[in-house]
Specification:
About 70% of the residues lie in helices and about 0% in strands. By secondary structure, the protein is mainly alpha-helical. Strands 1-2 form a two-stranded antiparallel sheet.
């Protein structure tokens, strides 16, 4: 058990975060031996580099400040604004072109059920992402300093705890890499399917492969931002969740050993308070975008439920970007499933963080009952219990809901209820959805040499 004694008051405030704070990654390349992997220098350096890679991606989106303090602030603001504006304009252009294709398709046919599913899911997904990028960029000034403080606050008394963090990070990055590889393969297949065809870009005839691949790439850009955002959240939840679990184990050991318990328990409660403050500061930055992502993904889930229980086919192609062939179906479902996987892992680890932060509550009640604690420590424990009751240590969605175990059940309940209602409606209507009669003159999968 490792317990650090700190001669600071519980209600002390953190040192103000400097917006230009950057990680100090050790330049010394340590051999990958087991002993050196357990050193504090290596552990902090590993976490710092992992966060820095994710921040670099966010920096390319123009949402995070530069890590180089030598650049002039004015030039930095200009280039950041250019990158941010470029990304947002690309997404807006995607939405407008998708709307143009959709209107072209529905102008010739009266039935638009499945087409609406495709149009609405893609348009709301990218629109919410653009809004999230803009909102997130206004709140990331203290992000680098906050992540540096999170890394510095970590104390790994057991090598297995840090090894678990490494496995979580590697698994998550492997899933992202697999998704990128799958998407690359699908882009190549899409280019092969539509080669030699033409499509309409706001009425201008251009090669179909150029337009389709550009739109898929912009959609992938939105997924990339979400994946990076969720990855930062996931890493923070895993790291601090394990720190809270380790802290609870330390409290339990002190309660059982009962040696110098007053001073040790006081230090542990102060450490719990500091970790809780880090979670609160992280939530202040990420809660608006988490709210937008969850709202958007719930809409995506309900649309996918409608799509899954439907026996209908796409009434007409939306240009060559959305058709009914196997390539488009694979792209649609892989992007949707990947998005939902990222959301699910984020919610589960956020609930894990809340659970571990509250896991010390039973131990604190046992201490009050079993140990002869001092008056100061008794008051300290009472304040900690009151704080955990009044201000739960958890991530939130703009302060409207807590991401805890109850929230997982709520999300599952919403999806299940919607599925049951849709099934009942379809059974009552005597069909699985709106069956489509093929009245459109052009085939869903365009023939070689035909226009879009």
């Amino acid at each position: 058990m490792t317990i650090k004694h700190e001669n600071q008051a519980e209600k002390e405030t953190f040192t103000p975060l400097n917006p230009t704070d950057v990680f100090v990654v050790p330049h010394k390349n340590l051999p990958p031996s087991e002993d050196q992997n357990n050193t504090e220098e290596y552990q902090r350096g590993y976490l710092q580099r992992a966060f820095e890679r994710l921040l670099w991606v966010l920096y390319l989106f123009g949402t995070v400040s530069s890590w180089s303090s030598r650049r002039s602030n004015e030039n930095h603001r200009i280039w950041t604004t250019i990158r941010l504006t470029t990304v947002v304009l690309l997404i807006v252009l995607f939405i407008l072109q998708l709307a143009f294709m959709y209107l072209q398709a529905v102008a010739e046919i009266p039935t638009t059920t499945v087409m609406k599913v495709h149009f609405l899911t893609r348009s709301q997904f990218t629109a919410m992402t653009a809004l999230s990028i803009v909102v997130f960029s206004t709140r990331t000034t203290p992000l680098r300093g906050l992540l540096a403080n999170i890394v510095k606050a970590c104390v790994w008394s057991e090598p297995s705890e840090f090894s678990l963090v490494r496995r979580i990070i590697l698994l998550h990055l492997s899933v992202i890499g697999l998704g990128a590889a799958v998407l690359s393969g699908q882009l190549i297949a899409k280019a092969f399917v539509v080669r030699g065809l033409t499509d309409s870009f706001f009425g201008l005839s251009i090669p179909a492969e150029l337009l389709s691949i550009s739109m898929i790439s912009i959609e992938s850009l939105a997924i990339c931002f979400r994946a990076t955002h969720v990855s930062v959240t996931l890493m923070m939840c895993a790291i601090l969740g394990l720190q809270f679990r380790q802290l609870t184990n330390d409290i339990k050991v002190v309660r059982l050993v009962q040696t110098n318990s007053n001073s040790q328990l006081t230090d542990l409660l102060r450490r719990h308070y500091r970790l809780s403050r880090l979670v609160k500061q992280f939530d202040d930055i990420f809660s608006p975008t988490l709210f937008l992502f969850i709202a958007s993904d719930l809409a995506l889930v309900t649309s996918l439920i409608s799509y899954f229980i439907s026996d209908s086919q796409l009434e007409a192609p939306i240009g060559h970007f959305i058709t009914q062939n196997a390539t488009d179906t694979a792209i649609y479902f892989s992007c949707a499933i990947g998005t939902e996987f990222m959301l699910t892992t984020g919610i589960v680890l956020a609930a894990y963080l809340n659970h571990q932060a509250d896991s010390c509550i039973p131990e604190l009640y046992r201490i009050i009952e079993d140990l002869d604690v001092s008056i100061d420590l008794d008051g300290h424990i009472e304040r900690s219990l009151r704080r955990l009751r009044d201000t739960p240590v958890a991530l939130t969605g703009l302060g409207l809901f807590l991401m805890n175990k109850s929230f997982i059940l709520t999300v599952i309940g919403v999806g299940t209820t919607y599925l049951v209602v849709m099934v009942q409606i379809n059974v009552k209507n005597g069909c699985n959805f709106e069956h489509v009669t093929w009245t459109h003159t052009s085939p869903v999968t365009p023939l070689p040499g035909t226009g879009g």
